[in-house]
């Protein structure tokens, strides 16, 4: 299966997005199609052997919309600015033509008789000349949209607008012809249709402008992209476009300039401001061998670096991709709104017709004009747009706000489900602790010549954090030849050196072959009670040395745990002994722990918690903890900017800060709360507004104004999420 995202133009309301989804999802070769009204994008997962992109575009075109590939710089597309400008100009021209017609409304109210209305404004032909271009040129988009919808046996907001304004416009023409040659006042309603279209155009302009602000986070990220860089080529330093640079090229980065691409420093040392990517305001010191992220700021010294990632593989582009995917996908909460949108317009038309017949035959005794006003008011006050915008706008702003803090929600579902969590499980090493253990004590039980050489040589074969710590501690030792090297996953390593059998690992691993004395067990307990991880060095059939290593907790972990425990159960998993784990847990304030956990057992523990009806969040490094991250209801991958384990997690923290976990939970809670507010407003607006209009309490132009600004208010409410404090 192949997944692609396309830009869609021509959508006006939720019914438009639903129609595209329905048509695409009918195709057997398409596994899933989702359309985001706010972003004006469609994400399609399809079988390229059965259908191609051109065929998908054709299907979208056949129902009256236009699909095209996303431009390379579409995040800050000029098209968006041009469309906004076009919408503004249409409103201004419509307002200019509608103002004289608006003035004629004074003639309809007897209590405003004292306001003079020029005779020219009341002339039917003059009103027709002003109303016609508004109706069919400036308001032509509604007729086009309505025709496309009806042709495909569906209905949308355009159908309602076209019906309501056409009723007023053509009724006015009918009355104009009927009274031709008769002197006196002619009851015309050209101003009703003209003012309605003008107000709706104004609402569309405000809506499009507000929707543009909703995607500010993506635009800010895209704006960080550097356009060119200084590159070594054939012994010279030349300025090249980013597109021309390849992995392995050497780039020069001056002090005070932005790093163009992800790279590894090969010369010099400096201080990097990564706040634009990670949300971390404190500069990070970098030297030879360290990775640097493209679009971050080199604050200190000149450096040279070798490019490690280009194009879509850049950390910045990965972040943008993840945020866009989260904004495109639909959360479960939107399903109800989609179902209602499907039947909304036909239901409104039925209510409007019923109200018209009720008023015409019963309430007004055949007053066609009054009954028509009721019909128009009911038609135009209904607003499916508010329903369609309620969820995606909040998701877009919420996930964008999270990205600004270096929090990446992989999908809308993860943003929605995070608020349901009641239990948070932390992996100890690298998550609660720094992931850089150091040797704090050694105890010799057998004097063995060259034992340091044995330890360094064996441990240098492993990539385990404890191995790195041991190699660093015994850095002055010599490397010797090893035979029969073997890794015992979750336990330790072994090999043959100078004819001796060497085993290094956990004391339970050592105890599987030899018996530990009471003195050894007591020494082990004392070290572990201080929070140390204790490993043994076995040579032949004797325990030669016991080594204690301690991995210090990260800054602010204790305070973060304290905050979380106010609302959640906090659990710690570790492969360390029970004594070590309990010591660390006491230090951090964690009550629930699991010790001696093998890597393959973590997912089973998560599953056990879920079977006890807990909604579990797992926080790990995203690589070693992949199975447990997948098993959990919400998996959070802690990572540096160059190691975002997106595939196995639901949420990724660009910066390795556990203190962001409360912010993740807060953003989820506030975003879903915002969605519910929007849906409540949208439902209440229609549930209350339609009966009021049917009861005759709203003039058509008042109903049109309410409809135009209902969707704007939904978008503005969603934009409040941008003000959430970091």
Automatic annotation (TrEMBL):
Residues 2-68 form the HMA domain. One of its GO terms (cellular component) is plasma membrane. It comes from the Bacteria. It is an enzyme of class 7 (translocase). It is found in: Cell membrane. It is a multi-pass membrane protein. Keywords: ATP-binding, Cell membrane, Copper, Copper transport, Ion transport, Magnesium, Membrane, Metal-binding, Nucleotide-binding, Phosphoprotein, Translocase, Transmembrane, Transmembrane helix, Transport. Signal peptide: none annotated. InterPro entries: ATPase_P-typ_cyto_dom_N (IPR023299), ATPase_P-typ_P_site (IPR018303), ATPase_P-typ_TM_dom_sf (IPR023298), ATPase_P-typ_transduc_dom_A_sf (IPR008250), ATPase_P-type_domA (IPR059000), HAD-like_sf (IPR036412), HAD_sf (IPR023214), Heavy-metal-associated_CS (IPR017969). Its EC number is 7.2.2.8. Its main location: membrane. It catalyses: Cu(+)(in) + ATP + H2O = Cu(+)(out) + ADP + phosphate + H(+). One of its GO terms (molecular function) is metal ion binding. The chain crosses the membrane at residues 91-112, 124-147, 159-177, 189-206, 343-362, 374-391, 678-695, 701-719. Involved in copper export. Belongs to the cation transport ATPase (P-type) (TC 3.A.3) family. Type IB subfamily. This is P-type Cu(+) transporter.
